[in-house]
Amino acid sequence: MRRLRPETRWAYVFVLPWLAGLLVFQLGPMVASLVLSLTDYDLIDSPRFAGLDNYTRMAEDPKVARAIGNTVLYTALHVPLAIVIALALALILNRVTGRAAGVFRTVFYLPSMTPYVAVGVLFLFLLNGQAGMVNQFLALFGVSGPQWTTDPDWMLAGIVVMSLWNLGTTTIILFAALRNVPRELSEAAMIDGAGAWQRFRAVTVPMISSALFFVVIINTITSLQMFDQVYTMYFSSQTAQQASGDAALFYVVYLFQQAFQFLHMGYASALAWVLFVVIALITLVQVKVGGRLVYYEAEEHA
Amino acid sequence: MATIERIQAPVTTPAGAAGDRRADDASRGTRRVFFLVVLAAASTIFLYPFVWLVVASLKPRERTFADPFVPWPTPFAPGNYAAVWDAAPMLTWMLNSLVVGVVAALTVTLSSAFIAFGFAYFRFPGRNLLFGSVLGTMMLPAAVTLVPTYLIWNTVGLTGTQVPLWAGNLFGSAFYIFLLRQFLLGVPRYVFEAARVDGATYFDLFRRIALPLARPALIIAFIFELKASWFDLMKPLIYLQDPALFTLPRGLKAIVDQFYQGGDPKWEIVLAAGVLTTLPLIIVFFVGQRYFVQGIATTGNRG
Q1: Domain B81-300 - what CATH class?
Q2: By CB neighbour count within 10 A (0-12 exposed, 13-18 middle, 19+ buried), where does B25 fall?
Q3: Which residues is A39 bridged to in the sheet?
Q4: Which of B172, B252, B292 has the CB atom closest to A117's CB atom?
């Protein structure tokens, strides 16, 4: 074997924990997951090869279809709404500046410090159809609010409402990006006669496009993996079957139930792999599209 | 609208300019008031649920939903907090969360700093590929490795203990490695070279130079992981069966199952437990606020 320079040997000592963790907790499990997805395994008997059975079963499982439908619809509603609202808040924060901006930023971030289980608990009460605060507020305007937590047609909407309480991280990222936009650019555009909307479209958005792109990707990935709040509100380990049917069945909730309540480890692994491929594809598409839309300042100087 | 007027206003006559500036100040003033009103309204939406939670947790059960817009409890029922103490081992859960959280945060901070120093200081064959794997795993959904990771802990007989909640942190975490590496790249190389000339070992460089200099980034990593651990529901659900080992989120979930969904509705206990789960993190946030904002802003700007 080639002898390594001491410096190189030390380099490997430092990155060794990462390499070990990568093999044991990331790559190894990914391969194991793929192999398990081709078996039937219940933790008691040893895994039995089942070919692609788990995948064909997925295609026919109405609960999988329901879970995918709910998860995709939630993501499609949450991501654009969250980003538009967070961007609006960040733009306004950027206009008031000074101490006030700091105080408001803190307030906007507070919900993000609330553990998701507590968020789920809180919104079970706030969204209560008979007497919750949300419906009592709507009643002030003569609107009779829906049964957010029990009516299958409204449960997903309730979950989206809950998710929009948590905009702190997205707002802070966009606000930080806005603060880095040089004021001269906007002023130059103003002198050229650009209106507020034109300046926003032609100066602000391109200058914060990489941050926007980042929050779109992060919000999409986390939305597709929604678990904690929904599981807290509508599922429990004692009763696998819910009174409300599958209206709040999200993909990772179903994966969790299959793996750890029914001990269908093979089937759960197949579900996990499909999720992985879907998220990888979505991220790839977003990176490709984003690469064309995002303006990187560095390119100009390169 | 006001801005367009300003652009079209003649800028040559001094009188016109002065008048324009006065009008401009006025419109800027009204605009600022308008913005502040919008922000205050948004703040109410973000803050009032906390107020409701605390107030409702201090009311008797039959008044839980009554008068949601009155921001004080009528009648005042602080006994709910004694009741939650009797109904569930809240103190045990709180200590469990604290111990698991601190151990998880310490291990991930130190291991990530160790690894980050390796990536920041050395050049070695395979570095870019290996660092690519750091970036790659950031996007890897945790759900993909859920089942095999469980099987690993099951094989070594550690399911049913708190070890799986933090032991993975010994191998660093992609996000913190990235953050700390960025930070260490900012340290001028001659600082390290000078120490080398003085006979410092590579481990000295890490312990005596990199660690102290990276303090702000270490604090960011520590409090973010503390928060993540305090939030975690799924791992405790998977690995813990014994209620004496539960962390707060797992305990709160047990309380919801028993006293909200179950046939024995005790809303005041659920709400008081919700407050007790949330409060410690809010305190951590106010103490370490600067680092939270910094941490989020740094990751966001990465793009």
Answers
A1: mainly alpha
A2: exposed
A3: A49
A4: B252
Q: Which two tokens stand for residue A182?
A: 């040089």
The phi and psi torsions of A40 (rounded to 5 degrees) equal -105, 125
**Global pTM value:** 0.90
Q: Residue A89: is its pLDDT beyond 70? A: yes
Cα nearest neighbour of A198 on chain B:
B4
ipTM: 0.91
Contact yes or no for B150 and A238 at CB 8 A: no
pLDDT band at A2 (very low <50, low <70, confident <90, very high): low
Torsion angle (degrees, nearest 10) of CA A153, A154, A155, A161: 150
Window 27-46 of B: residues touching A by CB (8 A cutoff) are: 31-32, 35-36, 38-39, 42-43, 45-46
Report the C-alpha gap between B53 and B275 in whole angstroms: 7
CB contact under 8 A, B256 and A124: yes
In chain A the domains, ranked by start, together with CATH numbers, are: 61-301 (1.10.3720.10)
Do A78 and A163 contact (CB within 8 A), yes or no?
yes
From chain B, the residues in CB contact with A117 under 8 A are 233, 249, 252-253, 256, 277
* Whether the predicted pLDDT of B84 surpasses 50: yes
Burial of B70 (0-12, 13-18, 19+ CB in 10 A): exposed
Min distance A211 CA to chain B CA atoms (Å): 5
Please check whether residue B184 is in contact with residue B210, taking contact to mean a CB–CB distance below 8 angstroms: yes
Beta bridge partners of A279: none
The whole-angstrom distance between A255's CA and the closest CA on chain B is 8
